[in-house]
Amino acid sequence: MSKKLKRHEVKNTYLLRLDRGDDLIKKLTEVVQENDIRLATISGLGAVSKIVFGYYDQKDWEYIFLEKEGQFEILSLNGNVSIKDGEAMVHAHIMLADEEGNAFGGHLGEGTVVFASEIEIQELSNADKIRKYDEDTGLPLW
Ligand code: ZN
Asked: Cα 75 vs. chain centroid, distance in angstroms?
């Protein structure tokens, strides 16, 4: 089965710095909502002093989160913005390195504390990606 894909063009690119102490996903959500960004891709790097990350348990259909405090470099922050319950929602995954260079990561949770971070947001045209409950996974998907 092939799907005819819809085109989205980059409307705007924003670069922003997050401040020490910001809650990473809460701040990103606040920024996109305040700037009326309803469809976008997000990428970033930086460092955090606390990380809350997790995975979606495919049997129990719930997120399991882990927390770590320390000095972690953000190797990769990837996410998107789409609409859930009428509001812009940020979905992001993060990969970090600890002081020994070991990498780990997962679904970004609330409670992650920024040390410093540089973020790029690419706002896209045709903001029609609406999240709805998916019966096969229990997740709110496009
Ligand atoms: Zn996720």
From this structure: 14
pLDDT-derived band of residue 1, with 50, 70 and 90 as boundaries?
low
**Span from the CA of 110 to the centroid of ligand 1 (angstroms):** 12
Cα distances (Å, whole numbers) of residue 129 to 6, 88, 114, 136: 11, 10, 28, 19
Distance of CA 107 from the midpoint of ligand 1 (Å): 4
The pTM for the full model equals 0.95
The residue ranking higher by pLDDT, 2 or 98, is 98
92 C-alpha to center of ligand 1: Å? 6
> 93: CA distance to ligand 1 center in Å?
6
pLDDT for 3: 85
User: What separation in Å is there between the alpha carbon of 79 and the centre of ligand 1?
Assistant: 9
What is the 55 CA–ligand 1 centroid distance (Å)? Answer: 7
Distance 39 CA to ligand 1 centre (A): 16
CA distances from 11 to 14, 41, 121, 125 (A): 10, 11, 11, 6
Could you tell me which CATH class the domain 10-125 is placed in?
A: alpha beta
